Amino acid sequence: MIVLFGLAIGIVAGFFFEPTVPTGLQPYLPIAVVAALDAVFGGLRAHLDGIFDDKVFVVSFISNVLIAALIVYLGDQLGVGGQLSTGVIVVLGIRIFSNVAAIRRHIFHA
Amino acid sequence: MPELSTQAPPAPPTGRSRLLDGLLGRPSRGQVIVAVLVMLLGFAAAVQMHITHTSNDFAGQRRQDLVDLLDSLSSAADRADAQISELQRTRSKLQSQSRAKAAALAEDRRRLQVLGILAGTLPATGPGVIVTIDDPRGTVSAAAILNGIEELRDAGAEAIQINHRVRVVASTYVTDGDGGIIVDGHQLAPPYVIDAIGSAHTLGQAVVFPGGLSDDVSALGGKVSVQQAGKVVVSALHRAVTPEYAQPTGS
């Protein structure tokens, strides 16, 4: 329950404050959001599996975001930032789909 | 045979019950940490959505993306330029073609009129003479009339008609008939009126020169009067027939 509250507060705060993101960070924000989303779904799946560990969750969340941003940064330096961010999005999307499928099996047994 | 135990071991909690526990139970330390991280996620997602929806300029784009965009735009502009010049070429080609067609059409119209006057299928007007041949005794022969027509042609008559009924063309024949002459199958009775378009003075001279039509008719007992006119109308038409045997040669 408190997790859902946190999510709602974050969304409301984001819309309410409308902070300006530094131009240099703007390409990485969407990648970071998708990576964090992947971590969250992974955590939910682990929770339903009964193997959830908050330390693992925190580490995976932060490392997901950092690694995704790092890959895209590297791609930008190599001149293939657009393609590499597309690749990262695709991989994270596949992971999100498989995690959501596992969650669905837990909840609906289907 | 082992005895069945009456008390089953407690079943492991299912995913559903764990979810309900998480939603309804007391928040643990782990849940608080997760809530903080998820709050960060929601915050970032909301900010990103806001950026995506509000900024339509290229400030946040990668340099490489901008270069690609510029490249594609300039190549699109090149293609459009090429198309423009191609279409302009086509347009000028079509314009010159249509000009040539219009010129050809005007030339054809002109030739049609010239040929129509020559063939007798178009009415004509212009300066010329009106030759009246009085033949009170019916003694003027077709040969004399034909000679007169030939004299007029020699003098450059461009369109000739007789009695306002018969157009004289290349195939016109003149024979003697009952009480007059037959021209192209039309029975004509005196007085004969020959309208000829051409140089009025020359045509007049062609009729009255010694030994010409005037003298011939006088010798036969008739009388010729020539009237030079600034405007003679030749309105009788010859019906053109398609040649049955003569065919145009290839060139």
Quick rundown:
Chain A has 110 residues and is mostly helical. Chain A has helices at residues 2-17, 28-49, 54-78, 81-108. Chain B has helices spanning 15-24, 29-54, 63-119, 142-154, 200-208, 213-220; strands at 124-134, 159-162, 166-168, 174-177, 180-183, 186-188, 192-197, 223-234.
Can you walk through the features of this model?
Chain A is mainly alpha-helical and 110 residues long. Helix content of chain A is 83%, strand content 0%. The two termini of chain A are 25 Å apart. With 251 residues, chain B is an alpha+beta fold. Chain B has helices at residues 15-24, 29-54, 63-119, 142-154, 200-208, 213-220; strands at 124-134, 159-162, 166-168, 174-177, 180-183, 186-188, 192-197, 223-234. In chain B, the strands form two sheets. A five-stranded antiparallel sheet of chain B has the order 3-2-7-1-8. In chain B, strands 4-5-6 form a three-stranded antiparallel sheet, covered by helices on one side. In chain B, a hairpin with a 2-residue loop joins strand 5 (180-183) and strand 6 (186-188). In chain B, helix 4 (142-154) runs antiparallel to helix 6 (213-220). The N and C termini of chain B lie far apart (122 Å). Mean pLDDT of chain B is 83; it is low at 1-5.
